[in-house]
Write a structure and sequence with these properties.
With 280 residues, the chain is of the alpha/beta class. It has 9 helices and 8 strands. It has one domain: Rossmann fold, CATH 3.40.50.720. It is globular, with a radius of gyration of 20 Å.
């Protein structure tokens, strides 16, 4: 018996890297999978059926079931088609893993509208496009359901040259928190993962050039298997930080703050008491 026996899981961007590892790990636990991948380059240009089709064959080689989908997550039609692929093949969706992504890094002063729009479209709008039909389906069938989003430390902590990517990933954090609240009464849980791994998207970034096996993408997938399984039935609205053997939680903190000594704050009082206001 596998942890995911009978569950139908959609994984976007699963033709390689972290998404492929998610797919293989879920297949080994008995899931039926929709492998979505546009098959484009790291910056999102181009397209090919090869990547998703190859992963489907790998999964079938494990004795599990999988179908391929090649739609673009950044369009409403693409999200609907991905959902339709799952329904046509398996008749339901139990889990959605929003993993698809691209990179178009540039320092902000040199970032044009096209660079901004492309990254926001795939990461942030893509999560909307893929989640909406799945969420409605889960709601209509009364749950349970699990939605697993992919955020990043670039959005949670910041990273030079990734204003577009960081903004999208921070938006996914907010989306995850809201959907966890809205999905609670329908037994739909929503969580997110902030992975650090060496993949095609990250291999030439300075922090990844000298790393070894400890940042292999296979280390990321156990948390996704857990969140997809019934073991996490009471977990929602969480953001997990995972790299190698380290697993933790990201969360928003608020200081205790301070009360103005007058009728309302003035800029001068804020300046005089800023250390008290910011004290953790």
């Amino acid at each position: 018996m596998g942890l995911l026996d009978g569950k139908v899981i959609i994984i976007t961007g699963s033709g390689g890297g972290i998404g492929r590892e998610h797919a293989l790990a879920c297949a080994k636990e008995g899931a039926k999978l929709v492998i979505n991948d546009l098959g484009g380059s790291r910056d999102g240009s181009g397209g090919s059926d090869a990547a998703a089709s190859k992963v489907v064959e790998e999964i079938k080689g494990l004795g599990a079931q999988a179908v391929a989908n090649f739609d673009n997550v950044a369009t409403v039609k693409g999200g609907e088609n991905i959902f339709k692929t799952a329904m046509d093949a398996f008749g339901k969706v139990d889990v959605l893993v929003n993993n698809a992504g691209i990179l178009r890094d540039k320092s902000f002063a040199n970032m044009d509208e096209a660079l901004w729009d492309a990254v926001i479209a795939v990461h942030l709008k893509g999560v909307y496009c893929c989640t909406l039909p799945v969420f409605k389906h889960m709601k209509d069938k009364g749950g349970p359901g699990s939605i697993i989003n992919t955020t990043s430390i670039a959005g949670l902590l910041g990273n030079f040259g990734q204003a577009n990517y960081g903004a999208a990933k921070a938006g996914i954090y907010g989306f995850t928190r809201v959907l966890a609240i809205e999905g609670k009464k329908y037994n739909i849980r929503t969580n997110a993962v902030a992975p650090i791994a060496k993949t095609r998207l990250t291999e030439d970034l300075p922090m990844f050039k000298a790393v070894g096996e400890q940042l292999d993408p296979k280390f990321i997938s156990p948390i996704v298997v857990y969140l997809a399984s019934d073991l996490s039935k009471d977990i929602s609205g969480k953001v997990f930080d995972i790299q190698g053997k380290k697993l933790g939680q990201f969360y928003m903190k608020q200081t205790a703050g301070a009360l103005s000594k007058g009728e309302m704050w003035t800029a001068k009082e804020i300046s005089d008491r800023i250390s008290e206001i910011l004290k953790e």
